[in-house]
Every structure is written in C-alpha cells, then in structure tokens.
Design a protein that fits this description.
Helix content: over 70%
Number of helices: 19
Strand content: under 5%
Radius of gyration: 36 Å
Order of helices and strands: HEEHHHHHHHHHHHHHHHHHH
Distance between the termini: 69 Å
Shape: elongated
Oligomer: single chain
Largest sheet: 2 strands, antiparallel
Number of strands: 2
Length: 358
C-alpha cells in the first residue's frame, strides 16, 4: 500500500510538472481520445486529475477493507479471547492460592471452551486438582488442535497418565523431543523420570535448566536425589557422577554433598571421606557439606568445620536454627560441653523469636 501511494504521488508530480510547463509556455492543453478532442483550461484539467486520484485511493481503501475484513474480525476475536484467557489465568492463580477448588474447576471448564490450546491449559489445572477424569477430557479436546506441538503433548500426557510410558516416549521422540519446544522437552523429562531412565532424565533436566533456570532449576537435583536413593553400589554412583553430571553441577555443594553421602551409605567410606576433605576446602560454610561432616566426617574434618563456622554462629545476622543444630552436633562429637550448652542457649533464644522455625 505504501509503495502504491509513492507511485501515484510520483505520477502526480510528473503530470503537474507537465501542466506547469504548458502554463509557463502559454501552450494550450489538448486532450484527444480517438476522433474526439478538447482544449480544457489547465486549472480544470488539474482539478479533474486530483479528483480522479482521490477517487482511486478511496476505491482502493474500500477494496482493501472488504478483502481483509474477515481477517481483522478474526484478529479482534483472538485478542478478545486471549484477554479473557489471561483473566482466567489470574483467577486460577488467585483461587489456587486460596484453595478454592470449585472455582478452579469452573476456570478450567471456561478455558477448555475456547479452543484446543486453552484445553491443554485446562488439563494442567485439572491435574493440579487431582481430577483425573477432567484431565482426560481436556486432553482429548487439546488433541484436536491444529498445532502439532499441542497434539503431541496432549497424546503423550494422556499416555503418561495411563502409565503407557513407552508409547508416550515414542510420541515425544517422533515430535522432536527433547530438542523441540520447551513443552515437549518438559514432558520428555517427566516420561524419562517416570521410567526411571536417569541418564535421559538428567540430560533433559539440564536442557530445561539451560532454557529457563528460574522455572527448571530444581529438576537436576531431583533426578540425582532419586538416582542416588535407588543406586545399589558405589561404582555405579561414581560412574554416573563422573560421566553424566555436568562440570558446573560438580561444583554445586548441594549435589556434591548428596553424592558423597551416597558413597558413604553404600559402604565406600574412604572415597566419601576423601571427597569431603576437598568439599570442605571449596565450601567450608555450606549447610549440606556441614551435615555430611556431622554424619560421617573424620575427627580432623569435624574440628576444621567447627572452627570455620564458630564465628558465623556468633553473628546474629548469619546464625540460624539449622547452623546452630549442626554446631551442637559437632561440639558433642568433639566433646566440647561448654560449647554445646552455649549453642543450645542460643538455639532456644532464636526459636523464641517471632518468625523463627525449626
């Protein structure tokens, strides 16, 4: 449209220039069409030309409006629907906070009545409510979507709900998971976790965390916790930790403490205590590392940990219930009754403060 206006303006300039030249040269304007000819005044010809241009633009705008009117109506309806869905989401969030189950069910039904994509979101709400029948009903609606991602997600979710894990995994892989949309990648992680395929689940969790650390930061730890709870020997735990856990995760004290605790539980005390020495050097004040020291650390490690965290306990801004409990445990193991009494008094005082918990 813009280029057409530029073209018309250029033609107008050319014709206006020609008319101006005729006026300047005092040359009469002669219009010929077949056997007919006329010599109108230049001003009349110019006015007729401008009027013709205006009529042409008006006709063009009218045609444009008629041709694209259905599209504009569709866009308007979509914007209105999206606005309504946003309002429904806000309602769902507020009702979930206040635990209003009936209102949440109504919100899910309203969402499902919009389109297949909204039906998927209704299924998510129904799942949070523990409404298995509602989940199945909404997933069937979502499976009729024109969006291939929504269709694959709905079918895989239904299979996951029915414990048909191999079929869910096959659908997600055929749809490109885990390299495809985040929605499918999240389902791929859930299916792998349900299948106890810890290698696949860990890879999927790491990918999710890379895409959205805020929403998927806990999945890696969840996989490792589940794996280390079920692993039967220390060699398998070490192989998994060495080969599958990314280097950035090896530096995280929470995961490191989890790994070392697993080694100790499986009987490899030498490797657990040796790893704990390095962990104490890297993370001397981490609560999870301190808990590991209390559980299975050597006497030298307990003394080092106690010494490194004594000053933290004296600082009221840093001290908390968990730290004091661990220091009491270390003081008892190191046979320091005076320190035990002191930290117990501090713990009692801290528990008496408003807002404290333990």
């Amino acid at each position: 449209m813009r280029y057409l206006i530029y073209l018309i303006a250029l033609i107008m300039l050319i014709i206006a220039g020609a008319l101006a030249a005729q006026v300047y040269l005092n040359d009469p304007l002669i219009v010929r069409y077949g056997p007919w000819s006329a010599a109108p005044p230049v001003s009349l010809a110019l006015g007729a030309f401008i009027l013709a241009i205006l009529l042409l633009l008006l006709v063009w705008r009218l045609l444009f409006f008629i041709l694209f009117f259905p599209l504009r109506i569709s866009q308007w309806r979509r914007r209105r629907r999206d606005k309504h869905e946003i309002q429904l989401y806000k309602t769902a969030l507020s009702q979930s906070v206040y635990g209003n189950r009936r209102q949440l069910q109504k919100v899910a039904a309203d969402l499902a009545g919009h389109d297949a994509a909204a039906a998927w979101q209704a299924a998510q709400i129904a799942e949070e409510l523990g409404d298995a029948r509602g989940v199945s009903r909404y997933l069937q609606q979502a499976a009729r979507s024109d969006d291939a991602v929504i269709v694959a997600a709905a079918k895989a979710k239904q299979f996951l709900q029915d414990k048909r894990l191999l079929e869910a995994d096959a659908i997600l892989k055929s749809a490109g998971a885990p390299q495809s949309a985040t929605l499918l990648a999240k389902l791929y992680y859930e299916v792998a976790f349900a299948r106890a395929d810890w290698h696949t689940a860990l890879s999927a969790a790491i990918k999710l965390r890379e895409e959205s650390p805020m929403h998927y930061g806990k999945q890696v730890r969840k996989v490792l916790e589940k794996f280390f709870q079920t692993v039967k020997n220390a060699d398998a735990a070490t192989t998994f930790w060495t080969d599958r856990v990314a280097a950035i995760d090896k530096k995280q004290p929470v995961l490191l403490a989890l790994y070392l605790t697993t080694l100790w539980r499986l009987g490899d005390e030498k490797a657990a205590v040796g790893g704990l020495t390095q962990a104490l050097k890297q993370h001397p004040t981490n609560i999870e590392i301190l808990r590991a020291v209390v559980n299975f650390g050597s006497a030298a490690q307990r003394e080092t940990a106690f010494r490194d965290n004594e000053k933290r306990a004296d600082n009221a801004a840093i001290a908390d219930i968990e730290l004091l409990q661990l220091l009491i445990g270390l003081a008892e193991q190191l046979q320091l009754p005076g320190k035990v009494r002191m930290y117990e008094q501090m713990l009692s005082a801290l528990r008496g403060q408003p807002g404290s918990s333990g």
